[in-house]
């Protein structure tokens, strides 16, 4: 962070960041605002059921299509330009039949697998 109050903040080109990302389900931080991170992630296939007891989680689809399954056989589908806020504590299972790119907004340090953990857990603070 610079102390130059006249510095223009950087434009963050999501397409350029995504072009350098390959591994699905591995979010990368692209910006911080206050205590929140904006992360890009590529999704492909199905993720694990999990919830985030401490925080809501925002998904905004950038490219492709994704779905999120909720308990009770409920599923939502999201297209580019559409977003959803999953409330804290609500179990969810994101999936994408083909490759999908999303922007996540959530508190810094939020773990992708929430309270489930396991081998799908990605580092929460990797920047790109
Ligand atoms: Ni989640």
Explain what the structure shows.
It is a single chain. The chain is mainly β. It has one domain: Jelly Rolls (Sandwich). Helices cover 5% and strands 42% of the residues. The chain is built from 1 helix and 7 strands. Strands 1, 2, 3, 4, 5, 6 and 7 form a 7-stranded antiparallel β-sheet that branches. The model has no long low-confidence stretch (mean pLDDT 96). The protein binds nickel (II) ion. Nickel (II) ion binds at residues 50, 52, 57, 92, 114. Nickel (II) ion is lined by residues 50, 52, 57, 92, 114.
How many runs of DSSP E, i.e. beta strands? 7
Specify the structural class: mainly beta
Oligomeric grouping of the chains? single chain
The shape is globular
Name given to the CATH architecture: Sandwich
Q: If you average the pLDDT, what whole number results?
A: 96
Number of domains: 1
Beta-strand share of residues = 35-45%
Largest sheet, in brief, is: 7 strands, antiparallel
What bound compounds does this protein have?
nickel (II) ion
Q: For this structure, what is the CATH homologous superfamily?
A: Jelly Rolls
Report the CATH C-level class: Mainly Beta
Per CATH, what is the topology? Jelly Rolls
Query: Total helix count?
Result: 1
Low-confidence stretches: none
N-to-C SSE string, H for helix and E for strand = HEEEEEEE
* Percent helix: under 10%
């Amino acid at each position: 962070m610079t102390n130059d109050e006249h510095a223009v903040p950087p434009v963050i080109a999501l397409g350029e960041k995504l072009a350098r990302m390959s591994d699905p389900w591995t979010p990368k931080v692209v910006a911080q605002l206050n205590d929140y991170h904006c992360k890009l992630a590529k999704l492909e296939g199905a993720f694990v059921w999990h919830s985030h007891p401490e925080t809501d989680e925002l998904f905004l689809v950038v490219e492709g299509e994704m779905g999120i399954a909720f308990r009770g056989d409920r599923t939502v589908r999201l297209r580019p330009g559409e977003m959803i806020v999953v409330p804290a504590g609500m179990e969810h299972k994101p999936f994408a039949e083909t490759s999908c790119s999303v922007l996540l907004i959530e508190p810094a340090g939020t773990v992708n697998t929430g309270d489930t953990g396991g081998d799908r857990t990605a580092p929460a603070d990797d920047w790109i």
